[in-house]
Amino acid sequence: MKSIPVSTTINGDPYEFLCAPDETLLDVLRNRLSLTGAKEGCGTGDCGACSVTLNGRLVCSCLVLGAEAQGAEISTIEGMADGDELHPLQRHFIDHAALQCGICTPGILVAAKSLLEKNPAPTDEEVRYWLAGNLCRCTGYDKIIAAVQAAAAEMRGA
Amino acid sequence: MSLDEYTRREFKQVGTRVRRPDGVDKVTGRAMYGADATAPGMLTGRILRSPHAHARIRSIATSAAEALPGVKAVITSADLSVPEDEFIRDVQDNCMARGKALYDGHAVAAVAATDAATARAALKLIKVDYEPLPHVTDVDVAIRPGAPVVQEGRALENVPAGMSANVTSHSEFGHGTPAEGFARADKIIERSFRTAATHQGYIEPHACLASYAADGKADLWCCTQGQFFVRTLCSAIMGMEASQLRVTASEIGGGFGGKTTVFIEPVALALSRKAGRPVKIVMTRDEVFRATGPTVSTSMDIKIGMTSDGRITAGEAHLRYSGGAFPCGTVDMGGQAAFAAYDLEHVRTFGWNVLTNRPKEAAYRAPGAPQAIYAVESVIDELCQHFGLDPIDVRLKNAAKKGTKSSYGPTFPDIGLVATLEAAKKHPHYSAPLKDGQGRGISCGFWFNFGGNSCVSLNVNTDGTIGVTEGNPDIGGSRASISLMAAEELGIPYDRVRTIVADTSSLGYNDVTDGSRVTFAVGLATIKAARAAIRLMCERAAKIWGIDAEAVEWKDGAAVPAGPNAGKFPPMSLAEIAAVSFETGGPIAGHHEVNVDGAGVSFGVHIVDVEVDKETGATKVLRYTVFQDAGKAVHPSYVEGQMQGGAVQGIGWALNEEYIYGADGRLQNPGFLDYRVPVASDLPMIDTVILEIPNPGHPYGVRGVGETGIVPPLAALSNAVSRSAGIRLCELPMSPPRVLKALTGAG
């Protein structure tokens, strides 16, 4: 199969790459661009560990083709902190012990940030339903919900 | 059991909720997990798996695959020697079938190619000539004489003649004469239970990168709960000396027991040896479900007698566990754990392991205990309902305590069960009103906890900071708890300590991260390594002051004269001693190597409120509270996290999760869509109450907390469903169709 040239923007930086027509965005990010923060937990869109935003929309990058990134704006976990300054969600995840093994954490953070951009003051139930596509097997979600709400409160105050 | 370790003390740092040292890496995507490693010249490895539940492999033709451009190696079991050791042979045969494919998904061949697409194409060119054989995936069918035999000649001597060849072992535990106890009972209930196999469900699939060099040395990076055990298994399979294989554990994306063995690591090493290039293998989720994990599937008969005032007079359990296609000792732990929460005069358990055409069982959080305790706690609850007795009062009346001869032999030292039950009883949750249709269930849980081999090196840097080197992957905050204990013992701030996880060439042997052992055992070794460094630092101060080393003691992070007779010197801090160490004898370090005993058993009690939807059979969890004895909670947030995570895995097991096999013996739900683990919207907050009954076997009183939490949810949910919907299910999971069927059957 002939490779496809793609020009895209990731975390504000321009990127150009070649990918196979059937290659997923997740594989491009991880294997071609060394952006390994997005994780593959299932490859079928069930676990959310590969969550990124594509033109502002939360997607499973394992269900998006690399070729679809042409001309798009992509945000990944690697772009969430501002240099040394962690995003409030990242800081509260550490402070609330909202991660144990940490494999689902990048996807959950990307998804939670996307939620708070749309809804700065979600109820616990809204957080739980928004994050229902992000599996975490370690925490039982309790501390994740608490961390998202603490970050949301801080961001509303700021 | 060493019972003299604990000394009561006031903690300055242990017990605080510090930030974990690997936190920033893990919230920024910087942390390197199993699939994140790369090496120059790396090939992609992929594995061909059996589509049959049971089949003789007549031949495997690999030449077409080998001829495909980009393919650099193809291997089958013929590329591996046959280990003499039976345990190692089983591990190897599970990684690569030899002669027979024993379950759907069993590996039969593997390729290494320049990219994933070529590797996938090559797998399709491998021709395996299978002779399908009759299969059996159900434990109750497999145990019958005449059932298809998974493996011949695997029965231990203690299995009576005349049973199916699938029965590989038998065990018996207990004391007294149950018949006498049953004769004294006012009511005896006998029930049969079944529990489905479940998967650990870690979100990170198994991944490794192997690089075997022409001089016979090799490096292996992998996500594992125990790099040293990986080295033991892989060096044995590859015929290498341990020193020639260096295994480095990546960050680990969940394990829960499922990453305590190897599946792909020997395959990657063999491919790398043959190809002469590094080989990376990452499992798909389908492969994870079909060929790794899961737990045992079980069938159990429980008989318990009780007096009308709630005293248990005798208990008996017959446990039939299947650990899949290979012999498995997990039923022994089920038999030991079944009645461990109770002080009984007459108790007996009988266990049988049975082979089936399922994947080889891997440990899952308190392996063997949740199933047996689910069955026992269900029958006890039914007896409570029969007599109209309060379920916590009945458990308090029969609870094991200090001096109880446990049902599996040892006499308990200080244990926390009574305190845990009392805490549950007085908690507002237990007396909160329920609405119509809601039900409340409780259950006790138990786990042994392990200690085991542990090595720690603690280096005092010249700037007064500390490097701790330990050998257990950080699966849920252990770097933080180990750093906290080092800081506490040395009397310096937590952020002056950095703990790293060493590879197998950098430290002595450490047992796998299992048995809830790390915070307990590695913590103990860390404290003793710190004490060794403190002794050295006191000697250095003594040398500087020109007094006897015995006249110096360690206080608040500094050497001080031990008393007025020692002389008058101002305290000399750790940083001051470290700064001049090159002039006083050289670098300062402490280390400790030990096979730790005295882990101290762990008990928990869970309360859950549920509501069963009688139209759909779906069970909604409304409120959940976990009570557990942590001995001493080193980092309370991560202790809570263990309790919450265990509870939610147990909720999944109770309500939804199961391996479903078709009539063809193939796994029907190898993905997260059809094997449904709990998601955020399924759950309420999981409240936690940590009890601290010091473990006499640890300097700070620490007990492991990782496993007990998965034990009580199974029966707690079943007991709550019984009280909500008026139906007593004796099979897990209580999935909506099963509940609906029971509701319909109940009229």
Topology:
The complex is a heterodimer of chains A (158) and B (747).
Chain A: E1 4-10, E2 13-19, H1 25-32, E3 51-54, E4 57-60, E5 73-75, H2 88-95, H3 105-118, H4 124-130, H5 142-157
Chain B: H1 23-28, E1 43-49, E2 55-61, H2 63-67, E3 71-75, H3 86-95, E4 100-101, E5 107-113, H4 116-125, E6 127-132, H5 139-142, E7 167-175, H6 178-183, E8 187-195, E9 207-212, E10 218-222, H7 227-238, E11 245-249, H8 265-275, E12 279-282, H9 285-291, E13 297-306, E14 312-322, H10 330-337, E15 347-354, H11 369-387, H12 391-398, H13 417-426, H14 428-431, E16 438-447, E17 452-460, E18 466-470, H15 478-490, E19 497-501, H16 518-545, E20 552-555, E21 558-561, E22 572-573, H17 574-579, E23 588-596, E24 602-612, E25 619-629, H18 636-655, E26 686-691, H19 712-725, E27 731-732, H20 736-745
Parallel strand pairs in B: 1-12, 8-27, 10-11, 14-15, 18-19, 25-26
Antiparallel strand pairs in B: 1-5, 2-4, 2-6, 3-5, 7-15, 8-13, 9-10, 9-12, 13-14, 16-24, 17-18, 17-23, 20-21, 21-22, 24-25
The CATH architecture of the domain at 35-134 and 200-291 in chain B = Alpha-Beta Complex
N- and C-termini, Cα separation of chain B:
54 Å
Q: Structural class of the helices, strands and pairings of chain B?
A: alpha+beta
Query: What gross morphology of chain B would you assign?
Result: globular
CATH class placement of the domain at 35-134 and 200-291 in chain B: Alpha Beta
Beta-strand share of residues of chain B: 15-25%
CATH homologous superfamily grouping of the domain at 35-134 and 200-291 in chain B? Aldehyde oxidase/xanthine dehydrogenase, a/b hammerhead
Largest interface: A-B, 56 and 58 residues
Put simply, the count of helices of chain A is: 5
| Helix content estimate of chain A | 25-40%
CATH architecture of the largest domain in chain A: Roll
Radius of gyration of chain B, in Å, reads 27 Å
